[in-house]
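Please go through this chain and its backbone structure tokens and walk me through the local backbone shapes. Keep your notes short.
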Amino acid sequence: MRKLLEQLKLRHAAAAANAYPSSERVCAFYSSLVNWLFPEHTGKVMDAVQLEQHVAALEEQLRGLLASMEGQLPRDAAATSALFMEQIPGIYDNLVKDAEAILQGDPAATCLYEVIRAYPGFYAIAAYRIAHALHTLDVPLLPRVITEFAHARTGIDIHPGAQIAPYFCIDHGTGIVIGETTVIGPHVKLYQGVTLGALSIDKSMAMAKRHPTIEEHVVIYAGATILGGDTIIGHHSIIGGNVWLIKSTAPHSRIYYKADGSIKVV
């Protein structure tokens, strides 16, 4: 026990030196932002004055999160917060497009309100888009805390470094994994259990493109696994359920497993 206590003293001292804000504070900021953009989440609405006041409150909230991390930021907390706030209109526009894509892509969806209020795919995409904006500003840790918060809640794992165009549709979603260097074009639809991952590589190649590129208007069905930074799925393709791919496909491809277990390319 004495040895453990000595180890814990060092660990706690290191944690104090890092001075990152608590995960609870980070997730509270995310929830406050999402609920402001989409009151459907809580049913709590704001009048015009409250909406404007909340802008300042959100910026102050983020600035407070970043203040203890200034030594790890490329600019001060106030400048970083201001740059993030400038991205919010674009984040909102993309999320509305994502919600529309989910509504059009899922026959069971009855209206946008239902998609925004109840669909785990939309919630995970919202977390990703907010986290990605922070990621592009070189904010450490916080983007990952936000996406992992959504991961724990939805079972959908999207790295904040991925590049995902609008009109992104996730149907069901449980078990989806989207890696850090994945690139996804507009009007892409993923079903549950899809992995857009990396082949096993040496840690020294961590900065290389390790994950696939999915071009526009692609549908990937449940359980499909697509791996590798050189793998490109051509536009307007359909990837069938449980297919395993480590090679690129031409545009307009249809790829699925035959009854004998072989892959059929159309």
About this structure: The mean pLDDT is 93. The two ends are 63 Å apart (CA to CA). The longest helix spans residues 77-105. The chain has two domains: 21-157, 175-266.
